[in-house]
Design goal:
The protein has one domain: Uracil-DNA glycosylase-like domain (Uracil-DNA Glycosylase, subunit E, 3-Layer(aba) Sandwich), CATH 3.40.470.10. 45% of the residues lie in helices and 12% in strands. A 6-stranded mixed beta sheet has the order 1-3-2-4-6-5, sandwiched between helices. Helix 1 packs antiparallel against helix 4 and helix 3 crosses helix 8. The two termini are 27 Å apart.
Amino acid sequence: MFSREERQQALETTRVTIRACTRCRLHASRTNAVPGEGSVVAFILLVGEAPGRDEDASGRPFVGRAGRILDAALEAARLPRDSVFITNVVKCRPPKNRRPKSDELATCRAYLMGQIACIRPRVIVTLGATALRGVLGPGHELKASRRRVLHLGGIRVVATYHPAAVLYNRRLERVFRSDLEKVARSVARGAATRAGPSGRRPSRGRAAKR
């Protein structure tokens, strides 16, 4: 069992490695690699597809228009952004925001798995079909997966829409927010159950304190 400090150091090492990565073609056109950000003790890990233009420029995940959709949904679910961890299956922006290729997903997967091992979230939320397949592998369809109970190494996986999809179809916003609210409630219930009769809860992030 690694301490919080050891996990934080391992996550920082992964971040530095991602920033300098040249393992696939995407490094040649990037401005910044985007490792992700958030709490090493987050109950919830959100995984998107890849950085866009704004993320490539800033080096931070979900800071553009889709990021504002995500921030609003997190606020509605009473999940402060700094209480979760946010990343992507691919850490560098594909040219012209094209969909990541299979070899790019495979190359970045080791980084994502390393982040999951450091954070040890209770729930992984995949944002969109590419993120879903990047986490669980090919053969998973978003529509079907949204109705199923999924797991990765004992960690529950919840499939929902990418915030960018909400930009193009505002009818999805209610569903997207509802999915995150359900995740928040399930994490809060789990923390309360683990607390037992004493009422004391683990201190792994603000989601447990709701």
